[in-house]
């Protein structure tokens, strides 16, 4: 059973813990597209830009430990600033406890309040738990990129999902 769950907008003092959580999930090699974690400097720049731009970026802590995140970052392309991309992850040992759902609903609420019209994501087709989470929270499947990822000598399809408020 989990301890006290706290979800809040990411702060600059979360950078090191966020980096550790992100690295942990990346190093599992199963849930995120990256094969190795970005540098701490890249993570710092990402978080500080999200704070400055009021992007929907939230973290979850249990008993003080950062165990998950969700961020919805608007496109920088001038014709696509109405849309944003969702990224999220939960540290191993804390999944299937409602943390992802709580993070996602909080980040979505923030994103819609900022005037975004479209939120999209990509998820591995074999990640049925995540696909269910996204569907439950209003995302629809828009397509599948067949054999899109090759890792550990096998291919994975990537499902593209989105929701919009036009």
Automatic annotation (TrEMBL):
Protein's gene: aaaT
Enzyme kind, highest EC tier: transferase
Pfam families reported in the protein's UniProt record: Acetyltransf_1
Transferase listed as a keyword: yes
EC number per UniProt: 2.3.1.-
Name of the featured protein: L-amino acid N-acetyltransferase AaaT
MF terms (GO), sorted A to Z: acyltransferase activity, transferring groups other than amino-acyl groups
Keywords assigned: Acyltransferase, Transferase
Domain N-acetyltransferase: 5-166
Top-level taxonomic group: Bacteria
């Amino acid at each position: 059973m989990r301890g006290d769950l706290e979800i809040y907008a990411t702060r600059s003092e979360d950078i090191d813990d966020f980096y550790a959580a992100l690295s942990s999930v990346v190093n599992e090699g199963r849930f995120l597209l990256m094969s190795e974690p970005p540098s701490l400097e890249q993570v710092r720049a990402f978080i500080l830009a999200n704070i400055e731009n009021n992007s929907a970026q939230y973290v979850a802590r249990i008993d003080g430990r950062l165990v998950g995140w969700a961020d919805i970052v608007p496109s920088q392309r001038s014709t696509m600033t109405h849309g944003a991309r969702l990224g999220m992850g939960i540290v191993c040992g804390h999944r299937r406890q409602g943390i992802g759902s709580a993070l996602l609903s909080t980040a979505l609420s923030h994103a819609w309040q900022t005037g975004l019209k479209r939120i999209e994501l990509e998820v591995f087709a074999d990640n049925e738990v995540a696909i269910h989470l996204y569907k439950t929270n209003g995302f629809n499947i828009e397509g599948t990129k067949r054999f899109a990822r090759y890792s550990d000598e096998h291919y994975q399809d990537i499902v593209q999902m989105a929701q919009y408020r036009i």
